[in-house]
Amino acid sequence: MADEPGSPPLFSSPAPPPDTGWERLRELWRRDERERYPEATINIIKSSFVAGLAGWVYGGLPAFYQGRKAFIDRSHGELFLNRADAVQAAHRAGLRSFIRYGWRWSWRVATFVMLFNVVSTGLSVYRNKTTIGNFASAGAFTGALFRVHLGLQGLAGGFVFGAVFGIPAGGLLIVMQKFAGETLDERRNRERRELYEQKLAEWQSRLSVTEVLGQTESNVEDQRRREQELSRSY
């Protein structure tokens, strides 16, 4: 059966797992046959979302109480319909501060965590191993990028802060993976190998079926040819 134009060959052998760092990096942002992104990519998105929520709470809650207190201090002598109206007005002032300052912390923390995870995961995938150096480098790069607008001194400070942040964060993640019994690199390599072996077995199965069908068609053709020769002889 002929393949449709533009479709991959039906009986082509499956591609082996990526062997170079650049191939593994490309695979990190490529969806599989089920249109799903790799687990490492999903983890980057999830961690950025959680970091954004944590940053919003961290920056928003103090701002809420400060904004509420500042409104109460400013509103002495103002007239309200009743006590409930005054409480609601104070809560609205606190909520405005919560949204304003929570958002400022949220996007900064989410962006920092996303960049840190993208760089550290990219280094681990490219090198095919997870080390403290990957996290220290990711932290230094992210910290320097966040402080680059402050000039050379800010760049150096961000570099040092990011590296200091990345070392314990990376160490904690590595220890947690060790306790889990399998690191992310080992799991990633195992899943690649299992997927390749599964595709290879399916390809060999289809190939054997094709060979059997081809042999059957050949036998039928030979039988038809012999029958035609016998009919001519009579």
Structure notes:
- The two termini are 37 Å apart.
- The longest helix has 50 residues, at 184-233.
- The protein has 6 helices and no strands.
- With 234 residues, it is mainly α.
- The model is unreliable at 1-9 (pLDDT under 50).
- Helix 1 (21-28) packs antiparallel against helix 3 (83-127), helix 3 (83-127) crosses helix 4 (132-147) and helix 4 packs antiparallel against helix 5 (151-180).
Summarize this entry quickly:
The protein is mainly α and 234 residues long. It is built from six helices and no strands.
Poorly predicted parts: 1-9
The ordered H/E elements are HHHHHH
Largest sheet: none
H/I helix tally: 6
Average pLDDT, rounded to a whole number, is 79
- Tell me the strand percentage band: under 5%
* Count of DSSP strands: 0
Taking the alpha carbons of the first and last residues, their distance comes to 37 Å
Rg, please? 31 Å
Choose one word for the global shape: elongated
- What structural category do the secondary elements indicate? mainly alpha
Helix residue percentage: over 70%
Produce the secondary structure layout.
Elements: H1 21-28, H2 39-74, H3 83-127, H4 132-147, H5 151-180, H6 184-233
Helix pairs in contact: 1-3, 2-3, 3-4, 4-5
Which properties best describe this structure?
disordered N terminus; elongated; 234 residues; mainly alpha; 6 helices
